[in-house]
Amino acid sequence: MPTFSPEMVTRVETTGVIAVLVIDDADQAVPVARALLAGGVDAMELTLRTPAALEALRRIRAEVPEMLAGIGTILTVQQVDEVVAAGAAFGVSPGTNPRVINAARQQQLPFAPGIVTPSDIEQALELDCRLLKFFPAEPSGGLSYLRSIAAPFAHLGVRYVPLGGVNTENLTAYLSEPAVLAVGGSWLAPRDLIQAQNWGEIERRASDAKRQAIAVRG
Q1: Rounded CA Rg of the chain
Q2: How large is the greatest C-alpha to C-alpha distance in the chain, in angstroms?
Q3: 3 — pLDDT class (breaks 50, 70, 90)
Q4: Tens digit of pLDDT for each residue in 134-183?
Q5: On the CB side of 30, how many CA atoms lie within 13 Å of its CA?
Q6: Angle (nearest 5°) at CA 129 between 85 and 52
Q7: The total number of structural domains that make up the chain
Q8: Does residue 133 have an active-site annotation?
Q9: CA 134, 124, 22: angle at the middle one, nearest 5?
Q10: What CATH number is attached to the domain comprising 148?
Q11: Annotated catalytic residue: which of 7, 13, 133, 177?
């Protein structure tokens, strides 16, 4: 099943913020993971947008095992096989592709497909997915739009991870919404800070986000 275990759901909800990263050099993977951890963020999504992503995941899993490290931008069945082999804790996609979700089910990879319409949610539910990525969040209408499309499915226990335009200004509002399990934060460790190896700034951003999450959720 491509579902998240209750233990993983609780961990993600407690963390509140999942760092979303693009890594160009696998040598940067362990330092950035440690910087995020030092700031209190212990969940991350490495996007499959560079050739370094899978090696970055392998190094983080080996050297920073306390980090919950998954892979995003999974677009093909072959990529599902690759990320499972690399040790991904979970998988994420930008859309709802039945072939990819079924491949994740076969591999027993916890999987969160991307949704942006009620039809997307219905398709995800048909495929036994209850944790969904709301993407792109702000360009699609933000929190008010998410409330509207989530309402008909609330009794089914569907939870969402908004990503895209979420930042320090609207983080508290998103985390205050009961349907939101956590948010995806690409601002925590943007590509330029990683390339500059500015681990101190990444730790500071993670710490700031974690403080906001604690203020909302305790």
Answers
A1: 16
A2: 46
A3: confident
A4: 999 999 999 999 999 999 999 999 999 999 999 999 999 999 999 999 99
A5: 9
A6: 30
A7: 1
A8: yes
A9: 45
A10: 3.20.20.70
A11: 133
